[in-house]
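Annotated sample (chain length 291).
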Amino acid sequence: MTTILDGKALARQLRGKVKDEVTQLRAAGHRAPHLAAILVGEDGASQTYVNSKEKDCEYVGFESSVYKRSADTSEESLLDLINTINKNEQIDGLIVQLPVPKHINATKIIESIDPDIDVDGFHTLNVGKLSINEDTYISATPFGVIMMLEEYGVETKGKHCVVIGRSNIVGRPMSILMSQSGRDATVTVCHRHTPDVGTYTRNADIVIVAVGIPEFLKPDMVKEGATIIDVGITRVDADNKRGYLLKGDVEYETVKEKCGAITPVPGGVGPMTRYGLLHNTLKSYKKKLNL
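Output written by the structure step:
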């Protein structure tokens, strides 16, 4: 029987632990941890995601601030805002919601964030620390995936893991984490120039898909009993009240019949990503207060 890796339920449980810890810290006289987010433009998915983060912060007892800027905001203005937040000792974590408008250099924006409050784990310094297995902020999505594998007891040692996608946000850090000592998976990274991706996935014990192509992974690409982690989420036009459906990178209903464990979309990796941000913000907060 296929195990459904319920990220929504697991994230709820882990958020409860963060809430309990924050309650104890506040009772001891400490201020609340503070997560700030910058949202540029009117992208619906980004707004929904930031709203969810605000609700998460409220639940666990964090302070949260959202700095909304119009789509025509200049890069210089955004850099000034980030610099101001960097200097605010009361803010423990800062994220800039991606994507940003095309006239803004996303790399320049990310590099301007103080690495000590870069709770998305995107800054070059934090990525470099991850690559040499130093303590750092792990990108929220890869961190959430690792937590899910650990909490559900998915064996990684000596297993063949295929990561589909090589983005700096998910694919690359995911491949590093899965191969690190302690997890010890043998990792193959596939991407758009990989011929016949199924050649690799059919021999994989664990497949992590992050390509942004709805239902990319089909059942004939999956080994019987494999663990399937679906990072993708795309709005697909549909004749319903919302006007769209949310689809993952995996053809869920058919692959579910063949694999041993699988994450649903929605309700799989997404909630765990949001938990990763809470975890990193609490980590930054405790570091600032020497706790």
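Annotation: The longest strand covers residues 34-40.
Annotation: The chain has two domains: 30-114, 140-270.
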